[in-house]
TrEMBL record:
It comes from the Bacteria. The keyword RNA-binding does not apply. Keywords: Cell membrane, Hydrolase, Membrane, Metal-binding, Metalloprotease, Protease, Transmembrane, Transmembrane helix, Zinc. This is Peptidase M50 domain-containing protein. The lineage of its organism: Bacteria, Candidatus Sungiibacteriota. GO terms for biological process: proteolysis. Its main location: membrane. The chain crosses the membrane at residues 6-33, 54-73, 93-113, 125-150, 179-203. Its cofactor is Zn(2+). Belongs to the peptidase M50B family. One of its GO terms (cellular component) is plasma membrane. It comes from Candidatus Sungbacteria bacterium RIFCSPLOWO2_12_FULL_41_11.
Length: 213
């Protein structure tokens, strides 16, 4: 595919994936008793309602033209943890809903890829472009899921981690919440390469092949 077409397809896949991610947070919170996202008009797949100028436009533009791979996020869906019926596990469930939605998308399109490979549709001109798009959908959603499960605030994994953290270690939570942004930047610059071996491993398990773009 040409670069312009490839960029449009990748940005479309990214926007769809991050919107599903955020809407999943909102519906999980709603199911647990918090209507904040509903009142904010965020329980919709309309990308306009979830647009973040930096995460949904500037960052994807920058990452695509510097690395060839697009990455970004949508505006976080608001929720009030004090409205959740389950005060202990509620925040963890809301936090996990986003990455789980990306894993669901990856598994669904991974099954589609397996079917295409089984029926030898990969080499067909009719299905070649779709196979490439589905491959990117699986890969990107795995990246989003694995990255968001890193237990550093404000990423979703931190909500799960803090729920499991014993009470006597709550000072760790306070420290990480205070310096979360700096810790996240340090992770992105020095340790983000650790994500991709995990993503490639999961991709191989789900699809049976290695990603080729």
């Amino acid at each position: 595919m040409e670069n312009a077409t490839q960029f449009i397809i990748q940005i479309a896949v990214l926007i769809f994936s991050v919107v599903v991610h955020e809407v999943s947070h909102g519906y999980a919170a709603l199911a647990l008793g918090d209507k904040t996202a509903k009142y904010a008009g965020r329980l919709t797949l309309n990308p306009v309602n979830h647009f973040d100028p930096f995460g949904s436009f500037l960052l994807p533009l920058f990452t695509y033209f510097t690395t060839g791979f697009i990455f970004g996020w949508a505006k976080p869906v608001p929720y009030n943890p004090y409205n959740l019926r389950n005060q202990k596990w509620g925040p963890a469930l809301v936090g996990a809903a986003g990455p789980l939605s990306n894993i669901f998308l990856a598994v669904f399109f991974g099954i589609v890829l397996r079917i295409m490979i089984s029926y030898s549709l990969v080499g067909s001109a009719l299905f070649a472009n779709f196979f490439q798009i589905a491959t990117f959908i699986v890969f990107l959603n795995l990246v989003l899921a694995v990255f968001n499960l890193v237990p550093i605030p404000p990423l979703d994994g931190s909500k799960v981690f803090f729920t499991l953290l014993p009470y006597q270690y709550r000072h760790i939570q306070a420290f990480m919440e205070q310096y979360g942004f700096m810790l996240l930047l340090a992770f992105i610059f020095f340790f983000s390469n650790l994500i991709f071996p995990v993503v490639l491993f999961l991709f191989r398990i789900i699809t049976g092949v290695m990603p080729v773009f």
